[in-house]
Amino acid sequence: MKITHIKHSGFIVELExxxxxxxxxxxxxxxxREDQEIYCFVTHSHGDHYGPCIxxxxxxxxxxxxxxxxxxxxxxxxxxxxxxxPRANVTKVRPHKHYEVGSIxxxxxxxxxxxxxxxxxxxxxxxxHAGDLNVWYWEEDSDKENKWQVSMYQKEISRLAEHDFDVxxxxxxxxxxxxxxxxxxxxLKTVKCSRLIxxxxxxxxxxxxxxxxxxxxxxxxxxxxxxxxxG
Length: 231
Prior knowledge:
Radius of gyration: 17 Å
CATH architecture: 4-Layer Sandwich
Mean pLDDT: 94
Shape: globular
CATH class: Alpha Beta
Number of strands: 14
Oligomer: single chain
Structural class: alpha/beta
């Protein structure tokens, strides 16, 4: 398994026959083999998770599948730079559903912001990408809203208690200050995972790395890996 951090929450997971691309919205990506199946995932339509660049894949490769949150717009024939995409290559997804697309299996969770999180099984590997499923605990928000965030996040992640992931991409956002590591801490406590890769920390990597000293993360520190951006 080869993992590339494109930018922000954008990642590529390359397996022997399969390429998984998550939330690519900007930045360069490597060249893939023609015989590989390419799956492009979009958790939701926010500009830091989705970009029109993803549609270039179908101009370069024959075997491309898109799995998109249901609210992500698919370009039509009216756009100058895109031919109409065959329906068979696009799967619009909803939360708490199972999908079989090509050679992979996918399950979705409900985000605490917009869209979905993805659980992907491919070539005997299991991958989790949170999208914006996070504990968005903002100090300026009401106690009611913040309690809802905590409760909903824990409810969704508890659905994964029986899973065992090879890799999980989880937000660690310093803008949340004391709560920036809440999501990662609960995930690691609840779900089996060989490797957790933080994301969604914008340009604040140093601040995100500081959460490694959080007592809740210390027991899992050897599992947490920051990857440099390639894009």
